[in-house]
Design brief:
336 residues; 3 domains; TLDc domain-containing protein; TLDc_dom
Length: 336
């Protein structure tokens, strides 16, 4: 991680030094083998100078100029690494402190908009939020055994599961939510592997789907009924009986709260109401009388997890491996 940060700081340093001031670019630089060079006939500095001039005419943003500059970056490899590893006093704790500071800003912004989203959801009105990419509407009616027909009206971004898998999951969620559409709000491939980051993206959503793919290409997860923001309030298990665990691959199975069973009729033991537990070290779903028997547990680095039989959902282990490696984890919210 520190190496990537060093490289990023070096790229930005040269962008600020040369990219924002094209007059400082050397007129006749020596052409050498480069890590980023795309053409062996033209030096990046000269190319960027002409492109930056045209970009000013087009009123491109600094971000656009940065992307263009990096695409044509032509610093010799040895100088790039010499400069990167010449940065002193770059400590891991300072890096994480800066990351946490930025995440707090994002979290603060999200707190301002989420009350509007909740009011919009409760009144049935749609809050207009611009989407980055508009996709064609593709109506599809999907039927599942023991379920009502489900209409998935929009394609969406996901790499952890197929749209057919989501149609199956939509047959399991509370019926009042089936009019909503899935929206990916967190992906380890996009947002990084850190539980705190996952919380920041997810915590003010009342409901969410967590989908995990492990090293055996098994896909499983859980439906959380209850805001993960409650972790800071209760410091104990929280959520509702609408939560459940599920597997998608190699086979589809769902494990719902034992309180729905005709045998219990809602008369459950305290340990059978352990739906969700979350803190800075782990995220868990499904507890048991035996404290170590957790249905699904995810560690703070989002690289490892574990699964066992649990009493809350009367579930078997979700994967063939008790302690598994997380290859990918995605979290989905609900939007109209």
């Amino acid at each position: 991680m520190k190496i990537l940060i060093r490289i990023g700081m070096t790229l930005f340093h040269f962008f600020v030094k040369y990219g924002l001031n094209p007059q400082n670019l050397p007129v006749k630089p020596r052409r050498r083998e480069s890590l980023f060079c795309r053409s062996k006939y033209t030096h990046s500095s000269v190319r960027f100078q002409s492109e930056n001039t045209s970009s000013n005419k087009k009123n491109l943003t600094i971000f656009d100029n940065l992307i263009t500059y990096i695409q044509h970056f032509d610093l010799p490899i040895e100088k790039l690494f010499k400069h990167a590893f010449g940065i002193h006093h770059l400590q891991r704790k300072e890096i994480f402190r800066a990351i946490e500071s930025e995440e707090e800003k994002i979290k603060s912004d999200r707190r301002q908009i989420m009350p509007q989203l909740r009011r919009s959801s409760s009144t049935g009105n749609q809050l207009s939020i611009p989407a980055p990419i508009s996709k064609p509407v593709v109506p599809r009616t999907l039927h599942h055994q023991n379920s009502m027909p489900i209409i998935m009206v929009r394609e969406f971004e996901t790499t952890a599961a197929s749209h057919s898998d989501f149609a199956y999951l939509w047959s399991l969620i509370p019926s009042r939510l089936t009019d909503f559409q899935p929206e990916r709000i967190y992906s380890s491939n996009i947002h990084g592997r850190r539980l705190r980051t996952l919380y920041d993206h997810v915590e003010y959503h009342e409901y969410c789907l967590i989908i995990i793919r492990n090293e055996n290409q098994e896909v499983f997860g859980g439906f959380c009924s209850g805001q993960l923001a409650n972790r800071t309030k209760t410091r104990t298990w929280f959520g509702t009986g609408e939560s459940f665990l599920f597997t998608i691959k190699p086979e589809r199975q769902v494990f719902k709260w034992v309180g729905y069973s005709p045998l219990t009729k809602g008369n459950t033991q305290a340990y059978e109401d352990y739906y969700i537990y979350a803190d800075d070290e782990r995220l868990q779903m499904g507890g048991s009388k035996e404290p170590l028997n957790i249905g699904l547990s995810i560690r703070q680095d989002l690289n490892e997890g574990s699964t066992k039989q649990c009493d809350t959902f009367d579930s078997k282990p979700l994967s063939t491996i008790e302690h598994f490696q997380i290859m990918e984890i995605e979290v989905f919210g609900f939007t109209r």
